[in-house]
Fold this sequence. Notes:
The chain is an alpha/beta fold. 42% of the residues lie in helices and 16% in strands. The strands form 4 sheets. A 7-stranded parallel β-sheet has the order 3-4-2-5-6-1-7, with helices on both faces. A 6-stranded parallel β-sheet has the order 8-13-12-9-11-10, with helices on both faces. Helix 19 packs across helix 20. Its EC number is 5.6.2.4.
Amino acid sequence: MRAEKMESTLKRYFGYSGFRPYQKDIIQKILERRDSLVVMATGSGKSLCYQLPPLILGKTAIVISPLISLMQDQVMALKQRGIRAEFLASAQTDPTVHKNAESGTFHVLFMTPEKACSIPGSFWSKLLKVGICLFAVDEAHCISEWGHDFRMEYKQLDKLRAILLDVPFVGLTATATQKVRMDIINSLKMRDPNVFIGSFDRKNLFYGVKSFIRNSQFMDEFVREISKFVASSDSTIIYCTTIKDVEQIYKSLQEAGIKAGIYHGQMANSAREESHRIFIRDEVYVMVATIAFGMGIDKPNIRHVIHYGCPKSLESYYQESGRCGRDGIASVCWLYYNRGDFMKADFYCGEATGNQRRAIMDSLVAAQNYCLQTTCRRKFLLEYFGEKFESDKCGNCDNCTISKRECDMSREAFLLIACINSCRGHWGLNMPIDILRGSRSKRILDAKFDKLPLHGLGKDHSSNWWKALAYQLISYGYLMESVKDVYKTVSVSRKGAQFLSSSTPAHQPKLVLQVTNEMVD
Ligand code: ADP
Ligand code: ZN
């Protein structure tokens, strides 16, 4: 009986003929009043999980959402479907909305977290009397300091648990590692929650990474590439890490006669809305933006998401690149990184201290490792999010499809691992590489590293070459990087130690590695 009602309500309001994977189970559990944590990829249809129950039960769903523009978009879309929806925020000045909300007029009532925490108890008791069917926290990763988008206001939401005693709490997010998941469950004081983790695998997305140097030659190539996408009317988002980059790329595109939208946090609201509008309506095919352009973009036919610069975390990379190919058609995510991106720890850490600082550093290292990965990118991403990927090759990423030159680097690997072993985990990569390259800098002489037998044995390769080798050895687990305060140190793993112990200076076990673009002498 309930299953039929679910299907008919879905059809009546949304016109969909069936549920997407997990939606039905999730909604059923919410109707049974179970707390739920929903972790599913962007575009998998999470919103329906809180939109349908109020229509079935005729009670209000409260939905916490971080951005007013996002709430406005959703309210508009719901109203068009004949669903009664509104939002409450400090910017909402219409007094009738408040009154109607209290008397249970709305199916879906959006609120900012600030509003939800500051609204008087009398409001909640009135609304509870007419009926609240669920309390949903959208973008729930914002609650966690370990997430990529921590927001203080989200932390206070636990106060509402005591007021909304019997209301099921539902957390929804697209990206959450185990740590973040636990944080959401604990922060919202969920009781025996049902945890739904959909697959993160977006099979229609191709993942690839390229390194670049900021110069005019690269910019010309880049613009040429973009002009090809525009010529075939493909929508593209170019995400930059800084406003300066956004402006530069925008300018280069304009100079090449390519119409584009521009979007960043320092633009006036009206200008941002205009950019958003022309992009959504296909009046321009390219959007150059910082990550301020994002949450709630529901454009199904974005074919390319390009990151110009290494993102601050894989969580945010996955979310941003996930805006590509929502309609299921093959689409492409390229990440362009510059070595300098890896030195930006201080820029990203800002005032953060303690745990928060550590979390930021860990995220940066993970994003960097993704860039330097020489094996399947999809496997790496999925395993980062705790999902098992059975095969070693997905066949739809650069490392799986573009053939790379390989060569036996056993001797070089031996030298580097042995040298890092001599440094005993106290240094980053520069020190052991300088030793191998025979440097006589002050810090080498002070530490008497010039007396090591390895000193100078790696002269015939550049330091970039050695770094590229080191990153491969890290990704294959021979070396480990860790973060001390803001410094990265490198040490030899158990696998690396085994390699050393089965080697002699004259003979090492065979180790075939890739000759990457970075290995230039
Ligand atoms: P998420 O919040 O997980 O990023 P959305 O809720 O925005 O995803 O849904 C993504 C798209 O999928 C939307 O355009 C939505 O209308 C569509 N959608 C959701 N559920 C269904 C369904 N059962 N059948 C068809 N389309 C659906
Ligand atoms: Zn792959």
